[in-house]
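Good day; I would like, with your permission, to put a structural problem before you. A protein sequence and the structure tokens that stand for its backbone fold form the material at issue. The record follows directly beneath this note:
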Amino acid sequence: MCSNPGGISCALFTCITSYIAQQPHENTPWVWYATHPRSALAMIATPSKQQRYVYQRLPSVDSDGKMTVRANISLHGVKLNGSTVRVPLLAAAAHVKLAAALGKCPVRAIFDSNCVKALGDFFNSLQRASGGCLVVELLRLQTTEFGALLERHRLRPAQVLDILRTVVCLVLEGACEVDLTPMIVHELTKLQSLHVSGGNLSSLSALRGSKTLLDIDVSGVSITHRDVNLLGQMAQLRSLVVDGCTGVISLTPFTGHPSLRHLSAAGCPNLRQVGSLGTIPTLEYANISSTAVSSEDLRRGLKGFMGIRGLVLDQLSFGEVEGTIRTHRTHWKVQRLSLKDVRCPRYTWVATAICLGDLYLDGTRLIERELSLLCSSLIYLERISIARCMWLVTSLRSLLALKHIREVTVSRRSLLEENGVAELCGRGVRCHICSM
């Protein structure tokens, strides 16, 4: 390890260390590292057959002056900060410890590993000879067999457990019951975001009583309505994704939820009741596409969607909703609306969303008269997609009145021979003409 308190430039530091690493002298170590004292630029030399390769590693610095290190960890080594080349575990750990020493505080870390042994060894290397001080704080950890990782270090000195307890965002791949127990959740006192994908996890009961979780993604997990009730009781929850969960049949437990902002239940084949979403005052985004929602329940939900910013209703079928929307004195505040492959009697009710910026009507039964009405009403529209609209025959000239339009997508078969595409392009509008 070398450093120069006098403060040489990073460029000169790189030249000097690269030159030293390439020297064939027999006393030159095969694997070594050096760090710049002010920038934490690390030069790491590793062997490959008869030559040495030298790599630069520069942690990113956040606005508050703290450093962030990203690492992909395996038994074959560590890829640091987006590098495609792996370096030895010990060299990578030394670099992180040096960065922490320079910053005089733990380094923020984003780690990804599907090997429990490699991750445990890396954590041991980080905390070895650290004097009991934390070297890293885990902003995000993506791994498998999290329960096994905790159990492996539970009976050892608490330094590795101290690292794991700092995790803010935990992504579990192939999770099972032992990866998410009440004891584990209780230990993760800083956990704010939990993402679970695949595996055999069949219950979220371990989350009961959690006061720190703000963001939960359990897409494709075999949860039940009992779990939905549990999630609805988490008053601090801000974001929930339950896409593809067959056990979700109703969102009634979220009636009047005080803080939920983002909810996605796309592809839940048994979901029928969503009317309660209209009672959530903080809701900004909802995705209930490809569900079994009935027309009546959807209309109840639409009554309360006046303050929502993003709404996705793809692949739904519902009856007349225009009367339901127009009975309100206030207009929709939605800025992004997706109605891809939606079947409804007419689409003129969308004109009540006067703040709309992005509109997706692909695969609908939209006709030219409705398109003209929408263009005359939605004066802030920036992006519109009307591909695969089999009933639509248009020149797109109605879009010329839109001052903010930036992007248009349309099928070639929907375009009249004499159209306004050239004029739109001349104004800087990106026109995508699809072959479908």
